[in-house]
Amino acid sequence: MKSLCVIGSLNMDLVTSVKYFPKPGETIFGESFKTFPGGKGANQAVALGRLGAEVLMVGKVGNDIYGTKYLEVLRNNNVKQDGVLIEEGISSGVAIIQVSSEGENNIVVVSGANDKVDCNYIESKWSLIEEADIFLFQLEIPVNTVINTMKKLKERGKIIILDPAPAAKLPDEIFKYIDYITPNETEIETLVEKKIDNDEDLREAAQVLFDKGVEVVIAKLGSKGASIIKEDEYLNIPGFKVDTVDTTAAGDSFNAGFAFALAEGRSLEECVEFGNAVGAISTTALGAQEAMPTLEKVNEFISKRD
């Protein structure tokens, strides 16, 4: 099995459960408050660790209680933390999350130490980084760091997966380094600056990304599953029905499941199905990482549908 490396963010999620999201100027009473480890990068790393992958996390936390806690979380979830530094004089990243009674969420992120993951830091960890085969990126560390790191990895023939989240318009250069890009509907609309209303719109949006250099688009479509889009192929892989509690890390979990299956050498269709399963299971408990499954649980989950 190929080894994996996640280069990205580590946040502590401060989660409030509410009946509904307050309107501007409105004060409501929340139903509960909990603290969970999160951040798109670390979510993907922890999900991979739970599945049993060999995975290295690269990023930074602050010199505070959240940073210390996160190193413990990584260690307890089979994630190598040699690539994570405690940055002095700054807070760890935090995400303030509201989750409604319907399982929807909104999120405010304070980047903290994640903003200090610069190219010099990547260079200082390069001997560890280049040992991996498959790399997962997101957009919660500086984009310049992401682009320059991808470029170096591409020159060495590594496999690169980008989860373009949070949604952002990106420089054209980044796309020529990407093997697999995994946007949801909002993110692909942002990337191509076009509204997506149907499959034809999605194909046209994917073509824009192909023209810029992307190899494969994996479009995450929520309850509808995910679509594999290549220049000459469009295939939808159905999702799984579950009782949703919290969708906070569904996309991160999908990416971890997809990358794990890819590392095992499965077909692209099997990789996306596996990603759909991991993503679905992850929504069945409150908190980004609480319901992330083991390999045994995912295989059992998929077999029940078969």
Automatic annotation (TrEMBL):
Its cofactor is Mg(2+). It comes from Clostridium chromiireducens. The active site is at D252. The lineage of its organism: Bacteria, Bacillati, Bacillota, Clostridia, Eubacteriales. GO terms for molecular function: ATP binding; metal ion binding; ribokinase activity; tagatose-6-phosphate kinase activity. Pathway: Carbohydrate metabolism; D-tagatose 6-phosphate degradation; D-glyceraldehyde 3-phosphate and glycerone phosphate from D-tagatose 6-phosphate: step 1/2; Carbohydrate metabolism; D-ribose degradation; D-ribose 5-phosphate from beta-D-ribopyranose: step 2/2. Keywords: ATP-binding, Carbohydrate metabolism, Cytoplasm, Kinase, Lactose metabolism, Magnesium, Metal-binding, Nucleotide-binding, Potassium, Transferase. Its main location: cytoplasm. This is Ribokinase. Catalyzes the phosphorylation of ribose at O-5 in a reaction requiring ATP and magnesium. The resulting D-ribose-5-phosphate can then be used either for sythesis of nucleotides, histidine, and tryptophan, or as a component of the pentose phosphate pathway. Its EC number is 2.7.1.15. Residues 1-294 form the Carbohydrate kinase PfkB domain. K(+) binds at D246, T248, S282, A285, G287.
